[in-house]
Amino acid sequence: MITVEDDFAMKTKRVFLIVLDSLGIGALPDAADYGDAGANTLGSIRKDPNFSCPNLERLGLFNISGTGGGVDAPLGAYGALAELSRGKDTVIGHWELCGIVSEHPLPTYPEGFPPEVTEAFTALTGKAILCNKPYSGTEVIKDYGKEHMETGALIVYTSADSVFQIAAHEDVIPVEELYSYCETARRLLRGRHGVGRVIARPFVGEEGSFTRTANRHDYALPPTADTVLDRISAAGLQVIGVGKINDIFAGKGITRYIKTKSNADGMVKTDAFAAEDFNGLCFVNLVDFDSVYGHRRDVAGYARALSEFDSWLGGFIQGMAEDDVLMITADHGCDPDYTFHTDHTREYVPLLVYGKGVEPRDMGTMSGFFHVGEMVAELLGVKRDQEK
Questions:
Q1: Whole-model pTM?
Q2: φ and ψ of 134, to 5 deg
Q3: Which of 8, 104, 153, 295 could be cross-linked to 128 through a Cys-Cys bond (beta carbons 3.0 to 4.6 Å apart)?
Q4: What is the CATH number of domain 115-220?
């Protein structure tokens, strides 16, 4: 049997790393510094009467210290991860999973973007802007969509995250044109204004019934250093990104990728890759937990979505090959029952590791998300740079 605290005794052909975007499991000791004291995403959704996650429970989710209970003989190795980076967003969380600890948070704009940004953006694009303040993505098109359609001005907004978001109606600004404006913004927003992501947010419909489409596209700040993804791909193995993984890493270290429209779509596409014969890492992000339920403070929806994932998980586990390893974790929290704000919450995240050769055990609480990437590399037989 192999353990996940020492060097792996076996090497595997494929690792499936699934990030349940925002599934925190309790506030970190410094959560109050971020306005998140007492947050607990898993604790909140577990209270919903329709919550049912027997497969995650059997893997050891509730055997993790602080989650409250568990099974007598969990099937997987289980533990908690404490973030070291200064932040609580998607980009920083994923970067740390793959080896980059960010000592400084990415810039945020609670008062909107300063004139030096907005004026430069307008000069480069020739487009006026509307809004320019933190806003809900669904509310901003409700409040500014009519004016946008009448004037052609771009709806520019942000959130508590390090993001520059541009919303535009697909009949007014074609999707490819919107993408070009986002590319311009990405080139502009570097240095001290280097936001984590520029995001295209196209929408359709009539006033009073505007809806966002699946043509969202993220333009991430390139990672500040090489990650474990670079090491894996440099070793000649595949790194397959499912969902927004390719966007988060600006394509760096990714050999193949596919976008997804929803959690359900992401699970279908993960099944499709599992049916292939590849050697390397399949890295999956399921974002609906965060974007559809966490930020909208929908406890019942979050509980239902995790239960749906759990139902899919049972079938995925049954179909795993003898030498496959499954790893399940998260990138931050987004407690849907937190009443002080609707943003991400700074929390511990879970780590579950399952495979025929993985010894079920308590890994305890590990300092740093980067342990995940190192485990992946170890399983795939990829040495650290200094060990080459």
A1: 0.89
A2: -65, 135
A3: 153
A4: 3.30.70.1250
